Amino acid sequence: MPRSLIIAAAQFASAIGDLDANFAEHHKWVDAAKAQKADLLVFPELSLVGHYGAETLLDVTMNSRDARLLELSRAAGDMILIIGFIEEGPGAQFYNAAGVYKNGKLVYIHRKINLPSYGKLIETKYYAQGRFVDTHEVDADWRLGLLICADLWNPALTHLAFLHGATLLVAPISSGVEAVGDAFDNPSGWTATMHFYSMMYGAPSVMVNRVGPELDLNFWGGSRILDPFGHPLAIAGQEPELITAEVDYAEVRRARALLPTVRDSNIGLVERETNRLINRLGVPDIIRNDD
User: Fold this and answer.
1) CATH assignment of 4-259, given 1.20.1250.20, 3.60.110.10, 3.30.450.80, 3.90.830.10?
2) Domain ranges in the chain?
3) What are the pLDDT digits (tens) for 97-123?
4) Are strands 40-42 and 80-89 parallel, antiparallel or unpaired?
């Protein structure tokens, strides 16, 4: 039988570059989510280091199986955690990463692909680019499509996540009011984006932002959980807050029967036209054959 999933989103301000303080904060939110009997708890982008944590890059980067991460997951029991941190990968490459943990183990990791270098965002200065869009199977019904912040502003990446079978879109973000410029309304943009993806692909979604000031940016919160028709189930304000909502796979089935976007995506046509574009533009092999 289709089953439901209780999703929790922890919205708060991270201490810039202070791993000890941020791990202690994470443990508090884990306890709060356990009290709500959450199956899945999502933290904001770079929740363990802060938006500007990379300013002290070598002091805050960690292996994805760091003992402190695994301890946090063990404290959560059966609850799945999605945690944001700076991962040190092979060859001293540093990634803006979101790790999926359960029962004291890393079960999946996403490395941010679309690294912004515009407005007040300078992530290409610090991070290597992720190379893959994939999904993580929770059970027979629920498959996570996990993308980080600006990844969702490249619609092709989100489309790929759903073609890989995602039935739940998870979006840890770090969105400051001033990040792009005065003419761009970040809160309204994210409201429209999350509504569009849930409605278009018939999938619940959870977006988790941070709050408060960090240097020259002010983070507006607004974390939200949506149903597969794009209707909000829970929306946070501008202060630290835990929001929860229950999503039902039966509603995913109903939404996708009514609007079969994934079914009608025509992968063969997309592949053919992408290859035609690559050949016309002469995209270098180092990009075409990235594996």
Assistant:
1) 3.60.110.10
2) 4-259
3) 999 999 999 999 999 999 999 988 989
4) parallel
